[in-house]
Amino acid sequence: MSELNPETAIALTVDPVSHDLGAFEVRRAVPQAKCRMVGPFVFIDQFGPAQYDIGNGMDVRPHPHIGLSTVTYLMQGAIDHRDSLGSFATIRPGAVNLMTAGSGIVHSERSPQSERRAGGRIFGTQTWLALPEAKEEIDAGFESVSADDLPIVEDTCAKARVIMGSLWGATSPTTCHAATINADIILAPGGAMPIEAEADERALLLVEGEAEVDGERLDMFKLAVLRPGRAMTLRSEKGARVVLMGGEAMTRRHVWWNFVSSSRDRINQAKEDWRAGKFAKVPGDEEEFIPLPDQPKTVSYP
What residues does the Pirin N-terminal domain cover (predicted)? Predict the structure, then answer.
């Protein structure tokens, strides 16, 4: 991670940590030591674009969460979601799955059989949003919002799908437990899009092409955390795809494996509950689960 001078539009550039999942690579920008959160975003993963071999796919076995909402958004591919509430949904490009863990939920994520037979592609993001302290223990919930229901803002050579929150005069129907902004921005050659100043914290993630913000180049797959309180312009001379994330600033959270909480004791309780088999099972995916790790890849403390 590099910190730039106060006059620049980009406050921090965060190099992601890569994890090889066999069929594809995941790049994790948050949490890291100098960037633990951006607004409510306490975890930012980007994966693909990648091509599965025929017969292969994603197989994330049932695992638990507390104290957060997961946001899954695809640009290519499909994922079957199942959870302990009995929810089932196949997410496809342009749609969003929002799963609120609250006091606890278990889910699995697997490639549909149609993707395995064809050797499908996968490209997208999964992020976690910390819940406000007063909502950390709310009842778990799940919603799937189709691509047709997410508003699209268009201008000459520029288009953006509003995944969460209100941007450019459009509001997404996706539930926000805290003030959140999230958008998928596509710029044709010569395109530009304003980046509004209202959110406490904002970041941009370039996932295709070339782009700059107020004249500063974005690096592919690196998270560019923007200066607060400053309106900016995102531009591309050759075309680009950029994800915008941010929202209201929050107090730091404890993160251990798949658990997020303002209380370290609550995370320790979740560890014991998962080890003891106290979480509910996932209907239709009861046979497998991910054991509690000794040393998880994701750990972040205030």
Answer: 24-129
Taking the CA of residue 257 as centre, how many other CA atoms within 13 Å lie in the half-sphere pointing to its CB?
A: 16
The upper half-sphere exposure of residue 210, i.e. CA atoms within 13 Å in the direction of its Cβ, equals 7
| 107 labeled part of a ligand binding site | yes
Predicted TM-score (pTM) of the model is: 0.96
> Rounded CA gap, 205 and 221, in Å?
6
What is the fold, at CATH topology level, of the domain defined by 10-247?
Answer: Jelly Rolls (2.60.120)
Which DSSP helix (H) or strand (E) runs through 216?
A: strand 216-217
Where along the chain do its domains lie?
A: 10-247
Question: Was 109 annotated as part of a binding site?
Answer: yes
The answer to the question of whether 63 is labelled as a binding residue is yes
Residues in Cβ contact with 218 at an 8 Å cutoff, skipping those fewer than 6 apart: 204, 206, 210, 211, 212, 224, 240, 242
Torsion of CA 28, 29, 35, 39, to 10 degrees: -100
Question: Any known ligand binding at 65?
Answer: yes
Alpha helices in 141-227 (DSSP H): none
